[in-house]
UniProtKB/TrEMBL annotation:
The lineage of its organism: Eukaryota, Viridiplantae, Streptophyta, Embryophyta, Tracheophyta. The keyword Methyltransferase applies. One of its GO terms (molecular function) is methyltransferase activity. InterPro entries: MeTrfase_7, MeTrfase_capping, SAM-dependent_MTases_sf. GO terms for biological process: methylation. Keywords: Methyltransferase, Transferase. This is Putative salicylate carboxymethyltransferase. Gene3D superfamilies: Methyltransferase, alpha-helical capping domain, Vaccinia Virus protein VP39. It holds the Pfam family Methyltransf_7.
């Protein structure tokens, strides 16, 4: 699978769009607000920038792309008043892969600014938006230009499906039945990708600048833990059931693997320490319960976890599934997903594990 070209969330604002099916992620982002608050207060006080550069990496499309930008501007504007400082200008960089629905983001910018000004009850400093359509596993910004980077639920996506996992039959990612070499290949791909990510950001972030990164990860050090790929294992089961009924060819499922790795806190920590350019200020684990999906933003309450999680998974995975299996299977697949998910949930309650870290850029080495 060519991740750069195939991976994107469902665009638009329709009923299967990421914009309308990302409440789980929104709830997860709210769990880490205290970390961002601490980071931006300390960053602003120590640097007092006249222009604050913020980047949202793996922004997708829809309301979640604006949550953190809005939080940051509110905090900074309040600090400026308290400190009697002129408000800075804001440069906001929205990054994702080129297939992302950037237009949807651009169309929302004016309503975002209006809503923010209304909530602040005052004009905010000038705020300029830029789209950055490229993989964050490479350089995407000029040297030393960014103050604050945020990324949620994006860095567990690998740059590619690891090589040498042809024997991961019947699975679509790491699973309890995956052979050991498959787990090793996924972990090594994660190490290569995350260390490259850190190396690139180390050039782009200003001294003292910071990054808040939330991975969909795991608590346990055991890579066979079912905290890991639970939501994907439900999809594997749905696909395998369709193989048994002859709707999908077995070979098609055997050759479908998702480029995802859910790291533990110690695995992310190890890569940061190895790369060496960032200080780890915080490393926390939290859990977004699937229950939190039952309170929809529109006040509708569907007492059906499976229905909500299946919609969320569809918004994330449909383009990738269509690319491999074709369009004909998706309705049936997500109907099955919902049924299987509800069955699993009646046996054990689970959620998504967040691994969040706050990193700050160490001083650059000075030449004498
Ligand atoms: C589940 S969405 C998360 C969106 C949003 N941050 C949120 O929390 O709701 C993951 C996003 O990461 C993006 N992504 C994955 N790999 C990427 C990469 N290498 N470079 C840039 N974006 C990437 C995907 O295209 C997708 O839009």
């Amino acid at each position: 699978m060519d991740v750069t070209h195939v991976l994107h969330m469902n665009g638009g604002i329709g009923k299967s769009s990421y914009a309308n099916n990302s409440l789980l992620q929104k709830n997860g982002i709210s769990l880490t607000k205290h970390i961002r608050e601490e980071a931006i207060r300390s960053l602003y006080r120590s640097t007092l920038p006249s222009c604050l550069s913020i980047a949202e990496l793996g922004c997708a499309s829809g309301p979640n792309a604006f949550i953190v930008v809005s939080e940051i501007i509110k905090i900074v504007e309040k600090l400026c008043k308290e400190m009697n400082q002129k408000c800075p200008e804001y440069k906001v960089f929205m990054n994702d892969l080129p297939g992302n629905d950037f237009n949807n983001i651009f169309k929302s910018i004016s309503s975002f600014k209006e809503k923010l000004s209304n909530e602040m009850k005052s004009q905010i400093g000038p705020c300029y938006f830029y789209g950055v359509p490229a993989s964050f596993y490479g350089r995407i910004f000029p040297n030393q230009t960014l103050h604050f980077l945020h990324s949620s639920y994006s860095l567990h996506w690998l740059s590619k499906v690891p090589e040498g996992i042809e024997n991961n039959k019947g699975n679509i990612c790491m699973s309890i039945t995956s052979p050991l070499n498959v787990l090793k290949a996924y972990y090594e791909q994660f190490q290569r990708d995350f260390s490259l990510f850190l190396k690139c950001r180390a050039e782009e972030v200003v001294e003292g600048g910071c990054m808040v990164l939330t991975f969909s990860g795991r608590r346990s050090e055991n890579p066979y833990s079912n905290e890991c790929c639970y939501i994907w294992e439900v999809m594997a089961k749905a696909l395998n059931d369709m193989v048994l009924e002859g709707t999908i060819k077995e070979e098609k499922v055997d050759t479908f693997n998702i480029p995802i790795y859910n790291p533990s806190p110690s695995e992310v920590k190890l890569e940061v320490l190895k790369e060496g350019s960032f200080t780890i200020n915080r490393l926390e684990v939290s859990e977004v319960k699937f229950e939190s999906l039952l309170e929809s933003e529109k006040g509708e309450s569907f007492n059906d976890y499976g229905y909500n999680v299946a919609k969320c998974m569809r918004a994330i995975a449909e383009p990738m599934l269509i690319n491999h299996f074709g369009k004909a299977i998706t309705e049936e697949l997500f109907y099955r997903y919902k049924e299987i998910f509800n069955d699993c949930m009646s046996k054990e309650e689970t959620g998504i594990i967040n691994v969040t870290m706050l990193l700050s850029r160490k001083p650059y080495a000075r030449s004498i």
